[in-house]
Specification:
The chain is of the alpha+beta class. The chain is built from 8 helices and 16 strands.
């Protein structure tokens, strides 16, 4: 049962081009009107979501609500999982980001008031959580947990263009423009893929996605059959090709029909290893771009309870 006295809301004031911070007095009042006397905290820099989540749990919080975009949600999840209290905690999602892809699997989470009602009234469902190890931009190996989708190849380059963009356009339009820019710059990475110990061969890729959820990149349906509680990653591999041949595949991402293309291969597994043999495979972790491959992915089955997940996604 939802208890506001054991609940913290961790909000990113920079979410939605600074909308959350600019309107925080009104937004925080609406949250407390809907949820009661919950604790409210604003992040100030990258990593605060992780730190605040861990500190709140140590103080006795048992519901952690993330208010921001997919990157904020991912940081909060990382903090919960690192606390090792994940089996005792529930997580809620309030959306205020550019892409807003994870909340697509929570019916009613589109707007703040309805999302608060979901947190107050709907049950929490145990879902799988991913873990990834990669090479940080500063050169060291780093590991962290993720919530939704992680990719290697062009995806992290797209993220970097999105982060640098000053455009106020929608998440879908911003990601589409970033994909076109990245496509002109990206040199296809050659990778070797292993899934659950089996060598799946070498490929020149535009991207390889390790998916817990279905959507990323502002409504691109990378993994149309993915479920959050099935104990498996959906792995979607995109072979490198010319821009002209790749355009139908990219267009198909918005409907999930890209998986029919001979340029796309799909796999399922719990332990994914991607070795980089040539060029750079840029990392995307829940919409953030912290580094590059090689990378290793492991699935933690039904590791965190998240409020309001739709039945069709579990």
């Amino acid at each position: 049962m939802f208890d506001p006295n054991k609940t913290i809301v961790i909000a990113n004031p920079m979410a939605r081009h600074g909308f959350v911070g600019e309107n925080w007095p009104e937004l925080s009042a609406r949250i407390r009107d809907a949820l009661g006397p919950v604790e409210l905290q604003l992040t100030e820099s990258r990593g605060d979501g992780l730190r605040m989540g861990k500190e709140a749990l140590a103080r006795g919080a048992r519901t952690v609500i993330s208010f921001g975009g997919d990157g904020t949600h991912s940081e909060v999840v990382d903090g919960i999982m690192q606390s090792e209290l994940n089996k005792e905690v529930t997580m809620g999602i309030l959306h205020a980001g550019t892409g807003g892809d994870f909340r697509r699997m929570i019916p009613g989470a589109e707007e703040l008031d309805s999302a608060c009602a979901v947190i107050r009234e709907k049950p929490a469902v145990p879902i799988d959580i991913g873990w990834v190890q990669y090479v940080h931009d500063e050169g060291h190996t780093e590991g962290r947990f993720f919530l939704n989708i992680t990719s290697m190849g062009m995806g992290g380059l797209v993220d970097r263009h999105v982060a640098a963009s000053k455009s106020k356009s929608s998440g879908k339009a911003k990601y589409f423009k970033a994909v076109l820019r990245a496509n002109m710059q990206y040199k296809p990475a050659r990778i070797r893929l292993r899934i659950d110990g089996k060598d799946e061969g070498e490929y020149d890729i535009s991207n390889i996605c390790v998916c817990n959820g279905r959507w990323a990149g502002g409504s691109m349906m990378f993994a149309p059959e993915a479920r959050l509680s099935d104990g498996m990653f959906d792995v979607i591999l995109f072979r490198a090709t010319s821009t002209l041949r790749g355009l139908p595949v990219m267009a198909g991402l918005y409907k999930g029909t890209h998986v029919r293309s001979p340029l796309v291969s799909t796999y399922r597994g719990r332990h994914i290893e991607v070795e980089v043999l040539k060029n750079t495979a840029w990392m995307d972790i829940d919409g953030e771009a912290p580094g590059v491959g090689p990378a290793e992915f492991r699935l933690h089955e039904r590791a965190l309870r998240v409020i309001g997940i739709g039945a069709e996604f579990i």
